[in-house]
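FW: tagging you since you asked about this chain on Friday. Here's the raw sequence from the shared folder, copied in full. Didn't touch anything.
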Amino acid sequence: MAAVAPNVTVTPQQPVITNMQVLPVTVAVTGTGATPTGSVQLSSGGYTSPASKLVNGQTVINIPANGLAVGAAVLTAAYTPDTASTAAYTAANGTANVTVTAVTVQLPSKLQGYKAQIAYNPGTGIVILAGLKNVKGGFKADELDSTDHGNNGWKSRMSGLLDFDGSADLDYIEGDASQQYLLNAVLNHIPLLLTLFPTTASGSTANSFVGPAVITDWEWSGDNTKLQDVSIKLAGNGPFSVVAQ
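HL: got it, structure written out here
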């Protein structure tokens, strides 16, 4: 019997996202005979994912923040059979549509007077990471356009501390759920949420700013008589979005 094209179903977790969101996409490959085996690649515009192996006929591919262009996007999943499936199935494609909206970017006229906080979103709500201290960050000065500094804030070239890096220290707290989420972020390269809060008095109209950051390095020290000390390094590609007070 000649090989046939299987059905490729592409299901984004959400049909509408912002350009700052990670988008999980489930791809299922089904046929009339045995469960198809092989791999899937997901693409849209300038984005192409690594090949992802099918498990029980499906896989989940996470499109990173800023992976898709703003506007209407067509996700195309390309299925390639492996040697176990080539006799039964040919290569096949499936598509789905998503809409990507732009986050409105507004930056403070100065960064002085802000404090930092790092959080994780396990899908059930924002969890503030406990035990973090000494949060620091930096960005490339040549990405600034401050010609209107003091009037309307920094211009769009500053949109989000582009290519920023940072660091933080952590007092390990055994059994703390938020630090278990932090470990998950390390192992799976899940973006954290870095937030800058104004340190102005209560009732101020100053804005907060939030953007994605990925942990790039993890160091720990300590012995069995002391709390474990952890240092992490962060990297991100912005942009920060404004959170109005």
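FW: The first strand starts at residue 7 and ends at 12.
HL: agreed, and The chain has two domains: 7-101, 114-243.
FW: great, closing this out.
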